[in-house]
Design goal:
single chain, alpha+beta, Methyltransferase, Cobalt-precorrin-4 Transmethylase, Domain 2, 4-stranded mixed β-sheet, 8 helices, 21 strands
Length: 392
């Protein structure tokens, strides 16, 4: 695939495919023209896109000439109404694949006024995807020679891949929660209630992926822990860890070489009021709400991609109460009649299919459950449309 976010792809990236001799293969394919309206053209397009989704994802570049698989020239697309053509492709994909795939389309305009189209197909974890068009009923995969029909053994592996990855993610999260509950942390850590945020790409457990995390060690400004403005970084066996410089530490972010991000914060839930430890209703949500987009940015920077499992856990929570009192202006009042009745709150995971998804949409259901545990119907920090407004 073109080694860049689709939104950032330019003419220079397409020219680089030509100058570097990037041949068609497992994750890229070149087409001079958009698919026509014949049944054969539509089946070919559906087979190409589904083969990417069923394998490793990939880019279909339309408006690019090729010779024996090597790109030779940006010829451009001759359609007069490119927006109409994009809607036609959307319609073909919506009707011709089961289940639907995740993809995006980018128009790239050259200095000469030529327009190429890049269709980026994400690797799928809800497949395999089948072409269901005009009686055509096949599953396709992809290798260095291009697309091919999946055989029985490959189909069996494809059907079990997503469920196996999900099971391994849950096992990883469970192991980490147990370790953190017992204060088994990568460095000496405060023994207080903890906020734990995990961002776990499914790819981390489906493939033997390893990412280059050294840039986050070489420039410590790039990886900031949650809730501190003074921190340090160091390498460890898992990857790179950024941590607050207090002793013992009260916050850290671990960036694994596999793409997993573990965020642990030990001071947010330690606010005391009248002898009670409280959950500061605005502060703790704001920390997480503001921090999640940074996690997504780091995943994109190292080359990881959606889907990503986002999971929130609160540890050592028994008898914590929600600090809510708008009249105080800072959220330090609380209702002592509804303390949390368990040591750990393990909130359901959310699978994020697109890293541009807003933090509020991901986090509100989790925040609501924490408020439920404290006796409230929902978080007071969201409006009726689900926007985070910090109402207290």
């Amino acid at each position: 695939m073109i080694p860049k976010r689709l939104d950032d792809v330019t003419e220079g990236d397409l020219v680089a495919l030509i100058s570097n001799g990037v041949s068609e293969g497992r994750t890229i394919d070149y087409k001079r023209e958009l698919p026509g309206n014949s049944d054969g053209d539509k089946r070919e397009f559906l087979a190409d896109t589904s083969s990417f989704a069923n394998t490793a994802g990939g880019d279909l570049v339309f408006g690019m000439d090729e010779d024996q698989g090597l790109p030779t020239k940006i010829t451009g697309i001759k359609a007069t109404d490119l927006d109409l053509e994009i809607r036609r492709l959307d319609s073909i994909l919506a009707a011709g694949l089961n289940p639907r795939i995740q993809y995006a389309i980018k128009t790239v305009t050259t200095r000469d006024g030529e327009r190429a189209l890049v269709v980026r197909v994400d690797r799928s974890w809800s497949g395999p995807h089948r072409v269901v068009f005009q009686g055509h009923d096949k599953f396709y995969g992809r290798n260095s020679a291009g697309k091919y029909p999946l055989d029985v053994n490959e189909l069996r592996a494809a059907f079990t891949l997503s469920s196996t990855a999900a099971e391994r993610i849950r096992a990883f999260r469970t192991d980490r929660i147990i370790a953190l509950a017992n204060n088994q942390t990568p460095l000496p850590f405060v023994d207080t209630p903890k906020v734990v945020l995990h961002c776990i790409p499914l790819q981390s457990f489906a493939d033997q992926v390893r990412y280059n995390v050294l840039p986050y060690y070489e420039d410590q400004r790039r990886l900031q822990p949650m809730g501190t403005s003074i921190w340090d970084v160091r390498l460890n066996l898992e990857g790179v860890i950024a941590f607050g410089t207090h002793t013992p530490c009260h916050t850290y972010t671990q960036l694994y070489r596999t793409g997993i991000i573990e965020v642990v914060q030990g001071s947010t839930l330690s606010h005391e009021y009248q002898g009670k430890l409280t959950i500061p209703s605005v502060l703790y949500e704001k920390y997480i709400f503001d921090y999640l987009p940074s996690c997504f940015r780091w995943l994109e920077e190292i080359g990881s991609s959606a889907p990503v499992v986002v999971a929130l856990t609160l540890i050592k929570t028994r008898d914590l109460v929600m600090a809510v009192d708008s009249s105080l202006g800072r959220g330090f009042g609380f209702d002592i009649s509804h303390p949390i009745d368990r040591d750990t709150i393990i909130l359901p995971e959310t699978v994020v299919e697109n890293l541009s998804m807003t933090a509020g949409k991901i986090l509100k259901p989790m925040f609501d459950l924490v408020w439920n545990a404290c006796g409230y119907p929902s978080s007071r920090n969201f409006d009726a449309e689900g926007n985070w407004v910090a109402r207290r």
